[in-house]
Design goal:
8-stranded mixed beta sheet; globular
């Protein structure tokens, strides 16, 4: 059964397009879509997916060598959306993921509103990011299958040995609905999916991760649905298990309690129209507005070629209800900003003729490694 069949049984696409929270299976699922109030604690709930099933394409057998720089694709290399009429549904799925993300992360919601108040134009997303466990089929492929099915193309692999992570990014198909839309209704964003190399972790940490992924059964097949509903595909863990993972890998601990939730969305700053299109100006504007930015390696992360500039906020926190009845604050998600400069071979073009394909593409290990720290205890402590 395809994802479209499952989701259509819950809500119609028009409701999502109007940013109306869809009706839920039960009150616990509905709570995932309730707006997060700054003065209230939010307790994470989940629903079971044992009666759903969908399949997706697997990632290709291509195993690219490590690469940190990708040249931009030329216009004639773009790939079209694969299904006639499928784009509307695909965007509805992304909109549902975005709704969950914004309801749980007031900082991201506030910053998007703040930028719109100054730059009264569309806000384009550079990329969406997800985290996964690289074990029992719960790794990159579990989330990537949705995007591959809807025309995305796998690009370079990035490795983070110290964090015991790897990642792949995926470029979007060309879209007929790019003009005038904002967020997930604007130009389709890149997708960045990482996974924890579980077999490199300690035996105790591996045991905990295996325990929950194995008990989840075929939950890895429902990654996109879980993200769209704001639900875990496995049982809530014990607080002591969360602590064990956090002591070894904050990435692992984050994934245990957040699952397939959007880890962050990224504003494409150079596509803004006001002075905020400069990421340095945007950073100053955000900090003057009272928000803290991730300071790991400096607020502004710059690629070695100087063409990819990135920054991010510190993650919000929510109260998670662990299975042993303990309620504790855990890191949630954050918002990122990226400015992609024009490639040297296109510097001669007038600004009015510069397209996204003329700009630096891809991702950079050094930048991403520091952006990962947006959910770290050190950064969250700074925020407090």
């Amino acid at each position: 059964m395809r994802l479209s069949t499952m989701l259509s049984s819950y809500y119609c696409s028009s409701a999502i397009a109007k940013n109306v929270s869809p009706p839920s299976l039960n009150t616990t699922a509905a709570s995932a879509f309730s707006p997060l109030q700054p003065h209230k604690k939010l307790c994470r709930h989940f629903v079971s997916f044992s009666h759903f099933l969908f399949s997706g394409n697997s990632i290709s057998s291509r195993n690219p060598n490590f690469c940190t720089v990708s040249a931009s694709k030329s216009d004639d290399q773009s790939h079209s959306f694969p299904y006639q009429g499928g784009e509307s549904f695909f965007r509805d799925v992304l909109a549902s993921m975005e709704t969950v993300y914004l309801n749980r992360n007031p900082t991201a919601k506030s910053i998007l509103e703040l930028v719109r108040s100054v730059d009264d134009e569309q806000i384009c997303y550079d990329h969406l990011a997800f985290r996964t466990f690289g074990i029992n089929g719960y790794g990159i492929n579990s989330m990537a299958s949705l995007f591959l099915d809807y025309g995305y193309t796998q690009q370079e692999e990035l490795r983070f040995p110290a964090k015991k992570l790897k990642a792949l990014w995926f470029s979007p198909p060309s879209s007929s609905s790019q003009d005038g839309g904002s967020g997930v209704n604007g130009p389709l964003p890149r997708v960045f999916i990482s996974e924890l190399l579980v077999d490199q972790m300690s035996p105790k940490t591996q045991e905990i991760i295996r325990k929950y992924t194995e008990k989840s059964g075929s939950g890895n097949k429902y990654a996109a649905l879980a993200s769209a509903l704001g639900s875990l595909t496995w049982e809530k863990p014990l607080y002591s298990e969360f602590q064990q993972l956090a002591g070894e890998s904050e990435y692992a601990a984050w994934t245990l309690v957040n699952g397939y939730a959007l880890n962050h969305v990224t504003i494409s700053t150079h596509q803004l129209k006001s002075n905020l299109r400069s990421i340095k100006s945007l950073n100053q504007f955000i900090e003057k507005s009272g928000f803290k930015l991730n300071s790991e390696g400096g607020v502004l992360k710059v690629s070695p070629d100087g063409l990819l500039l990135q920054s991010s906020t510190v993650a919000d926190s929510i109260t998670f209800c662990f299975s042993d009845g303990i309620n504790e604050s855990v890191p949630c998600s954050y918002i990122e900003f990226a400015e992609r400069l024009v490639l040297p071979q296109y510097k001669h073009l007038p600004e009015s003729e510069v397209k996204e394909s003329h700009r630096r593409d891809g991702f950079e290990v050094g930048n991403a490694d520091k952006i990962f720290e947006s959910t770290s205890k050190e950064q969250l402590t700074r925020r407090a």
